[in-house]
Amino acid sequence: MTADETARRRVLIVAGGFADAAPAISMAAALAALSRAALLGVLAREPLAELAEGAPVLSAAGGGARALTREALESAWAADARAFQRRLSETALAAQLGWEFRSDPGTGAELALRLRRPGDMVMLGYRRLYRRQGPVVVLGGPSVGGGDAGAGAGAGEKLAQGLAGALHLRAMTLAWPARSDDVGEREAQLLEELSASLLVLNPRAGLAPQRLAALLEAARCPVLIGPDDGDADVEDEAGA
Amino acid sequence: MAEEFDAGEAGTALPAGALRRDCDAASLGFADTGELEPLEAPIGQERAIEAVNLAAGMRHRRFNLFVHGPEGAGRHATVLALLREEAARRPAPCDWVYVHNFDAPERPRALPLPRGTGPKLRLAMEALVDDLAQAMPALFESEEYQSRRAAIEEEYGKRNEKAFSELTARARERGVAILRTPMGFALAPVKDGEVQKPDVIEKLPQAEREQIREHVAQTQKELSEFLESLPRAEKEHRAAVGKLNSEMAEQVVDANLADLKREFGQIEGLGGHFDALRADMIDNAELFLKAGSSGGDGPFPVTPTRLHDAPPFHRYAVNVLVSHPEQDETGAPVEVESLPTMANLTGRIEYMQQMGALITDVTLIRPGAMHRANGGFLLLDARKVLSEAFAWDALKRSLTTGEIRIIGASERLGLTSTTTLDPDPIPLDLRVVLVGDRLMRLLLEELDPEFAQLFTVSAEFDSEMPRDAESMTLFARLVAAVVAREGLRPVAADGVAALIEAASRLADDREKLSLVLSHLWDLLREADHLALQGDAQRVGREHVEAAQAAVRRRAARLPERMQEMIQRGSILIATKGSEVGQVNGLTVAQLGRDRFGWPARITARVRLGAGQVVDIEREVKLGGPIHSKGVMILSSYLSTHYLPETPLSLWASLVFEQSYGGVDGDSASVAELCALISALAGVPLSQSMAVTGSVNQLGEVQPVGGVNEKIEGFFDACAGKGLTGRQGVILPRRNVDNLMLRRDVVAAVEEGRFHIHAIEHVDQALELLTGLPAGQRGLNGAFEDGTVNANVEARLLDFAEARRDFGRGGDIADGLARLAGRSDDDG
């Protein structure tokens, strides 16, 4: 990778709200600092109002429900965008990193895959309902992806080990079934039992939005898609 | 200028042998100081030594000592030696340490420890912290911990994940989706995996809509219960992890603390501290985890061996404030604080800068001299203590309360704007010795009521002792001690004799020896240096006298300048001839150690008046109070000695000519009276003579100070202009014992070229200065005709009559004519 390409490297943080983005920002900043990349925060505005206007909404603390309205949703997005951008800028400035922020319509999975460029890493934010110190899980093994996916999986393991070390967590690799657009019941159960803190995906595993969304829902933790150019320097440093 | 007479027959002249007291080297009984046993103890200070010993030996806390006496009398050295002697008989005190107070961090705890234990405990505690920083991460990375932690994570994770999975599964079965939105969790009906939009639902049959609403409500209820249960579950989870961490931390802390407890746990006060320390270490195990794991960072990974230096671990540190060796043979401490600021006395709390703020902790408490001297003695210079802000106050407070409390100056002034500490006060068992001077003691007693309460004992060092055979022998042994201590050449007997003479001259008394020994030892050192330059094996009289001459020469710039001005006539001093109303007085000045004298012309003028003698020096505020007192005594003498039944009708003025720097003392009052009487009597005074001495109302001459320097100053002035054989000095008889004149002056007297007259009454001075009899009252109550006093009385009578005539407004012309006639007669 050339110096220009290095300069363009980014770590994307994609989330549907600030609550999902917040825990991902610090991890993404740590990754960006290792690879001297910039941070790009993306607030994904899913068309929920059209789908579920009037539906009851419970806050994370439970309690009384209120109805989902377009206005309330827009207001919540605006507030989350401000909070997301502020936290992103503070974190980036503290780590002396470049940063950008955008807010786009679409699901997180769609935007993650659409905005991703070669060399980028993508962190899909997910606020876990329950704090726990599960392992950093890399989905890999011979069955992951096709073609040279095995090489990508090896790089993912290194990245996962580096992150696990930085976060004082265990790292583990799951032999994952063949690519599909959904996640099977058995796989979902496996992910659920692992209670992972972070899921690391092979960038060359032919990811599709639906599959990514399904993995996110099954793992219920942030999901990291590694760089698809086999960035040895990032991986080496992360694993050091 | 009139012709002068010869004063040599007046019977007051002193022989040369009376002008100094030489010491016979042969009478000393040794060849040089090598034969003598050096004497380290002070001499002539028995009274002071008794007082010091009393204060040193007494255990009552108010018996602190104030030492005073002249500079250079060896106050510090003598007191220090005596205190060390007493201290050696006492046991060394215990160690004192400060440790963190885990209950009240702002109040560090002071703990007494057995001698020598403080440093050991500090090292042991540092080792404990360093060991834990390695052992703690190792334990938490161990398989045992990881598996137990994983079990907890799995248990709680599974429990909650499973609950949520079951909840979502039930929702899915009911056809309800749980959507994550920025507002929270939205519950929406789904059909065939797709969220059903509201307009679609509205078109559904009533029963179906009711069922969907029921399913959504049921799911909402379950989700709400689940979300509400999460904080409780997390709390349980945290508690389980905390319990595990505590168990693991306890294991490692107890294992590492065991040795410490075994070695130090029996010491009173430490047991409780160890318990609090253990609990804190277990509660804050993550400190060790973080510190231990950070050691591998950076380009040069190192084992974290000095983590005890890191601020987070200062709470476990032992700050050894003062410590004494376990096997201490030296006894109690004797401290000298040469810079007794408040902080240097009572200790201070230092601060360090962290992120722009000033912070402090138990390790930044610094001891003061009182901590170091606790259990022993503290020697301080009183002037320095009094000149340092808050130092005197802090010293008194500590002595009064019997404890050392560390309070900074900024706290006293209320300027501290950062967090600080209030360490436990430390019990004080201390004898303070202040060294000052007499005036300071008097001022303190007068102005500070607490002083007398706290400093009960006073030791006054004498400035001189009698000069006799015994004291001269002791003095010689002191010289031997200095020679031995400083590696000087042995001093020959004649060298010691010269030093004894120098001691007498310094005492201003040939019957005394000065105890301001520092000056004499400086002279000895300089004499030794001269002996070295002359390749002499011993220091002899010639070296001592050469050193004295060198000392005088170095200090002679100002006196030489004065003499030069006299010789050139810039300062008007006549050393021959006679003048009416004019006399040579003598003054002396002290510049540091050096004193020198020189003559000063004193003139008097008289006229008719109302009995007033004007002291011009006082009028222009150049005269001090004692000088003014002397002049008033003159006035009294005149008014009572002459015409006691008649009003004194005189106006007279007295002046020290060419004096611009102020005059004080009454040592010129004899000279002033002579000038005044000369002016009244119209009798000229010899200018070959100079006069010193004070006079009382009866005309008796009283002793004064600095006679040697005054005589030498006039001798130099006369010698510069040429000795005529008539010149000399008149001094009080009572000053004869003070004479230790230079050898050249003595030689001049011996050869009849200079004269020293000792008098007891002012009449003798008048006779010496006028060559006329002073005159005594006869049976008829009048002075004999032709005497000085008769002339004075006649003149005063004229003044009185003239004044009476003025008062009557009568024949002024007659009065004036009478006065004019009297003046013509005098002339």
Question: How would you characterize the overall build of this protein?
Answer:
The complex is a heterodimer of chains A (240) and B (827). Chain A has 9 helices and 10 strands. Chain A is an alpha/beta fold. Chain A has one domain (3-239): Rossmann fold. In chain A, the strands form 2 sheets. An 8-stranded mixed sheet of chain A has the order 5-2-1-6-10-9-7-8, sandwiched between helices. In chain A, α2 packs parallel to α4 and α6 packs parallel to α9 (232-239). The longest helix of chain A has 25 residues, at 70-94. Chain A is globular, with a radius of gyration of 17 Å. The model of chain A is unreliable at 141-152 and 230-240 (pLDDT under 50). The radius of gyration of chain B is 47 Å and the shape is elongated. Chain B starts with 24 loop residues before the first helix and ends with a helix. Chain B has 29 helices and 30 strands. Chain B is α/β, with parallel strands linked by helices and 827 residues long. The chains are: A alpha/beta (240), B alpha/beta (827). At the A-B interface, α2, α3, β3, β4 and α4 of A face α5, β4, β5 and α7 of B. β3 (56-59) of chain A pairs antiparallel with β5 (184-191) of chain B, so a sheet runs across the interface.
From the N-terminal CA to the C-terminal CA of chain A, the straight-line distance is 20 Å
The geometry of chain A reads as: globular
Q: How large, in whole angstroms, is the Cα Rg of chain B? A: 47 Å
**Would you report the number of β strands of chain B?**
30
The helix/strand series of chain A, from N terminus to C terminus, equals HEHEHEEHEHEEHEHEHEH
Mean pLDDT of chain A: 79
Secondary structure elements and their pairing?
The complex is a heterodimer of chains A (240) and B (827).
Chain A: H1 3-8, E1 10-15, H2 18-35, E2 38-45, H3 48-52, E3 56-59, E4 62-67, H4 70-94, E5 99-105, H5 108-115, E6 121-124, E7 136-140, H6 149-166, E8 171-175, H7 185-194, E9 198-201, H8 209-219, E10 223-225, H9 232-239
Parallel strand pairs in A: 1-2, 1-6, 2-5, 7-8, 7-9, 9-10
Antiparallel strand pairs in A: 3-4, 6-10
Chain B: H1 25-28, H2 46-57, E1 65-68, H3 75-89, E2 95-99, E3 109-113, H4 117-140, H5 143-174, E4 176-181, E5 184-191, E6 194-195, H6 198-202, H7 206-264, H8 270-283, H9 285-294, E7 318-322, E8 334-337, H10 342-346, E9 348-349, E10 352-354, E11 357-359, E12 365-366, H11 369-373, E13 377-381, H12 382-387, H13 391-401, E14 403-404, H14 409-412, E15 426-427, E16 431-436, H15 438-447, H16 449-454, E17 457-460, E18 464-466, H17 469-486, H18 493-507, E19 512-514, H19 517-533, H20 541-554, H21 557-568, E20 578-580, E21 582-591, E22 594-608, E23 612-615, H22 616-619, H23 625-641, E24 650-656, H24 669-681, E25 684-686, E26 689-691, E27 694-695, E28 701-702, H25 707-721, E29 728-732, H26 743-750, E30 755-759, H27 762-770, H28 788-808, H29 812-826
Parallel strand pairs in B: 1-16, 1-17, 8-13, 13-16, 21-26, 23-24, 26-29, 29-30
Antiparallel strand pairs in B: 2-3, 2-7, 4-5, 5-6, 9-12, 10-11, 14-15, 18-19, 20-25, 21-22, 22-24, 27-28
Helix pairs in contact in B: 2-3, 4-7, 4-9, 5-7, 7-8, 18-20, 19-20, 21-25, 24-27, 24-28, 28-29
